[in-house]
Amino acid sequence: MADTPGVHVEGIPELVKAIGKIDPALRKELGQRNKAIGQRIIDKAFPKPESVGAGSGAKPRASATTNVLRIMAGGSHRDRAVQQWGKRVVSREGVKRPYIRRSAEEDMPHIEKEYLDALMDVARKAGLRTTTRRI
Q1: Predicted model pTM
Q2: Helix, strand, coil shares of the chain as percentages rounded to 5?
Q3: Which run of H or of E encompasses 62?
Q4: pLDDT, tens digit, for every residue of 102-125?
Q5: Is there a contact between 81 and 93 (Cβ–Cβ < 8 Å)?
Q6: Positive or negative, the Cα torsion across 56, 60, 61, 65?
Q7: What is the CA radius of gyration of the chain?
Q8: Which among 96, 85, 84 has a CA at the least distance from the CA of 53?
Q9: Measured distance CA(71)–CA(57) in Å, rounded
């Protein structure tokens, strides 16, 4: 929840939108900080995440907006294994990479705190006075 003279915002998406209206660069900073949180999740995962082939987009990576974080590996062009000339291809269908999910779940309280700290820091930079409460 954020209060400025004459303005009352409640909820994270609304706060992010208000920050973006004040200064789009701050909204972008929040997205970059969220992406850094995702990269730390990948770095802590064990066994280390492996690539899903060759080329760009093959390694697990964080993709983040201001309030959504996704850990991705591959892309729509990698949705199924396709035999390449002269190479053996092992199908990866059904591979969910549970160790990445487990890494995130084990560290969830720290991740939530880090995201809220980043959000409150960016809101302060935007000149917004904020309060938080758990529901």
Answers
A1: 0.69
A2: 45, 10, 40
A3: strand 61-64
A4: 888 888 899 989 999 999 999 999
A5: yes
A6: positive
A7: 19
A8: 84
A9: 12
